[in-house]
Specification:
Elements (H helix, E strand, L loop, with lengths): L1 H11 L5 E7 L9 H15 L4 E9 L2 E8 L3 H14 L6 E9 L2 E4 L19 H7 L4 H14 L5
Antiparallel strand pairs: 1-3, 1-4, 2-3, 4-5
Protein backbone atom coordinates (compact mmCIF):
# COMPACT_ATOMS: atom_id res chain seq x y z
CA UNK A 1 0.00 0.00 0.00
CA UNK A 2 2.85 2.38 0.85
CA UNK A 3 4.60 1.92 -2.51
CA UNK A 4 1.32 2.33 -4.41
CA UNK A 5 0.63 5.61 -2.61
CA UNK A 6 4.18 6.79 -3.25
CA UNK A 7 3.88 6.04 -6.98
CA UNK A 8 0.55 7.89 -7.28
CA UNK A 9 2.02 10.93 -5.52
CA UNK A 10 5.28 10.89 -7.49
CA UNK A 11 3.25 11.19 -10.68
CA UNK A 12 1.49 14.30 -9.27
CA UNK A 13 4.73 16.18 -8.51
CA UNK A 14 5.34 19.46 -10.31
CA UNK A 15 8.78 20.88 -10.91
CA UNK A 16 10.47 22.05 -7.71
CA UNK A 17 8.24 19.88 -5.50
CA UNK A 18 9.28 16.94 -3.37
CA UNK A 19 7.59 13.87 -1.93
CA UNK A 20 8.15 13.07 1.73
CA UNK A 21 7.24 9.82 3.48
CA UNK A 22 7.64 10.19 7.26
CA UNK A 23 7.39 7.44 9.89
CA UNK A 24 8.60 6.68 13.41
CA UNK A 25 11.37 4.19 14.22
CA UNK A 26 9.85 2.32 17.15
CA UNK A 27 11.23 -1.12 18.07
CA UNK A 28 8.99 -3.93 19.24
CA UNK A 29 5.47 -5.07 18.45
CA UNK A 30 3.63 -1.91 19.58
CA UNK A 31 4.21 0.77 16.96
CA UNK A 32 1.05 2.81 17.33
CA UNK A 33 -0.86 4.22 20.28
CA UNK A 34 -2.17 7.60 21.42
CA UNK A 35 1.20 8.51 22.92
CA UNK A 36 3.14 7.73 19.70
CA UNK A 37 0.58 9.54 17.54
CA UNK A 38 1.12 12.67 19.64
CA UNK A 39 4.93 12.35 19.32
CA UNK A 40 4.54 11.91 15.56
CA UNK A 41 2.10 14.77 14.95
CA UNK A 42 4.02 17.25 17.09
CA UNK A 43 7.36 16.26 15.55
CA UNK A 44 5.91 16.53 12.06
CA UNK A 45 4.76 20.10 12.85
CA UNK A 46 8.30 21.01 13.94
CA UNK A 47 9.77 19.42 10.80
CA UNK A 48 7.35 21.33 8.56
CA UNK A 49 7.53 24.73 10.29
CA UNK A 50 9.61 26.29 7.46
CA UNK A 51 8.01 24.39 4.57
CA UNK A 52 5.01 25.07 2.35
CA UNK A 53 2.92 21.90 2.22
CA UNK A 54 0.94 21.40 -0.98
CA UNK A 55 -0.51 17.99 -0.02
CA UNK A 56 -0.72 15.97 3.19
CA UNK A 57 -2.06 12.50 3.93
CA UNK A 58 -1.71 10.91 7.38
CA UNK A 59 -2.19 7.20 7.88
CA UNK A 60 -3.05 5.80 11.30
CA UNK A 61 -2.08 2.15 10.81
CA UNK A 62 -0.80 -0.72 12.97
CA UNK A 63 2.76 -0.16 11.70
CA UNK A 64 2.63 3.34 13.19
CA UNK A 65 1.53 6.79 12.11
CA UNK A 66 2.78 7.71 8.67
CA UNK A 67 2.67 10.87 6.57
CA UNK A 68 2.83 11.43 2.82
CA UNK A 69 3.60 15.05 1.96
CA UNK A 70 4.21 17.06 -1.15
CA UNK A 71 6.32 20.11 -0.36
CA UNK A 72 6.88 23.12 -2.56
CA UNK A 73 10.66 22.80 -2.50
CA UNK A 74 13.24 20.69 -4.28
CA UNK A 75 14.01 17.15 -3.18
CA UNK A 76 17.54 18.28 -2.31
CA UNK A 77 16.27 21.04 0.00
CA UNK A 78 13.77 18.65 1.61
CA UNK A 79 16.46 16.04 2.23
CA UNK A 80 18.77 18.60 3.84
CA UNK A 81 15.88 19.70 6.08
CA UNK A 82 15.10 16.06 6.95
CA UNK A 83 18.73 15.35 7.88
CA UNK A 84 18.85 18.50 10.01
CA UNK A 85 15.61 17.55 11.79
CA UNK A 86 16.55 13.90 12.37
CA UNK A 87 19.96 14.86 13.73
CA UNK A 88 19.12 17.97 15.79
CA UNK A 89 15.52 17.90 17.00
CA UNK A 90 15.28 16.43 20.52
CA UNK A 91 12.92 13.73 19.23
CA UNK A 92 14.13 13.74 15.61
CA UNK A 93 16.07 10.53 16.20
CA UNK A 94 12.72 8.71 16.43
CA UNK A 95 11.76 9.78 12.91
CA UNK A 96 12.49 8.22 9.54
CA UNK A 97 11.89 10.92 6.95
CA UNK A 98 12.38 9.73 3.39
CA UNK A 99 12.53 12.09 0.43
CA UNK A 100 11.50 10.11 -2.62
CA UNK A 101 12.26 10.38 -6.30
CA UNK A 102 11.24 8.04 -9.10
CA UNK A 103 13.86 5.76 -10.64
CA UNK A 104 12.66 3.59 -13.54
CA UNK A 105 9.11 3.56 -12.20
CA UNK A 106 10.14 2.68 -8.64
CA UNK A 107 10.15 5.05 -5.64
CA UNK A 108 13.75 5.74 -4.65
CA UNK A 109 14.67 7.46 -1.36
CA UNK A 110 17.50 9.97 -1.44
CA UNK A 111 20.22 8.85 0.96
CA UNK A 112 22.50 10.73 3.29
CA UNK A 113 25.39 9.49 1.13
CA UNK A 114 23.94 11.48 -1.78
CA UNK A 115 24.69 14.59 0.33
CA UNK A 116 28.08 13.43 1.64
CA UNK A 117 26.57 12.81 5.08
CA UNK A 118 27.39 9.89 7.37
CA UNK A 119 24.73 7.28 7.99
CA UNK A 120 22.51 7.59 11.03
CA UNK A 121 23.87 6.77 14.44
CA UNK A 122 22.34 4.34 16.91
CA UNK A 123 19.93 6.15 19.18
CA UNK A 124 21.51 4.52 22.24
CA UNK A 125 25.28 4.39 21.68
CA UNK A 126 26.06 6.65 18.69
CA UNK A 127 27.67 3.82 16.73
CA UNK A 128 26.45 3.34 13.14
CA UNK A 129 22.77 2.37 13.42
CA UNK A 130 23.05 -0.33 10.77
CA UNK A 131 25.85 -2.06 12.71
CA UNK A 132 23.85 -2.10 15.95
CA UNK A 133 20.69 -3.26 14.16
CA UNK A 134 22.48 -6.11 12.35
CA UNK A 135 24.26 -7.34 15.47
CA UNK A 136 21.23 -6.76 17.71
CA UNK A 137 23.54 -5.01 20.13
CA UNK A 138 20.61 -3.61 22.13
CA UNK A 139 17.53 -5.59 23.14
CA UNK A 140 14.07 -4.37 22.18
CA UNK A 141 13.32 -3.81 25.86
CA UNK A 142 16.47 -1.66 26.30
CA UNK A 143 15.55 0.43 23.25
CA UNK A 144 11.92 0.82 24.39
CA UNK A 145 13.06 1.97 27.83
CA UNK A 146 15.51 4.44 26.28
CA UNK A 147 12.85 5.82 23.92
CA UNK A 148 10.32 6.17 26.76
CA UNK A 149 12.90 8.10 28.81
CA UNK A 150 13.73 10.29 25.81
CA UNK A 151 10.06 11.13 25.21
CA UNK A 152 9.39 11.77 28.91
CA UNK A 153 12.45 14.03 29.12
CA UNK A 154 11.13 16.06 26.16
CA UNK A 155 7.45 16.31 27.14
CA UNK A 156 7.55 20.10 26.76
CA UNK A 157 7.86 19.54 22.99
CA UNK A 158 4.55 17.68 22.90
Amino acid sequence: MRVKEQLVLLKKLKSNQSLINAKLNIPGPIKNNTYLIQVFCDGLKRFLQESKVDYQLIWDVATGPEAFLILNESAETSKQTAIEFEDNDNLGRLFDIDVLTENEGVPHPLSRNDFHQAGRECIMCNQPAKVCARSRKHSVKEMQNYINELINKNMELL
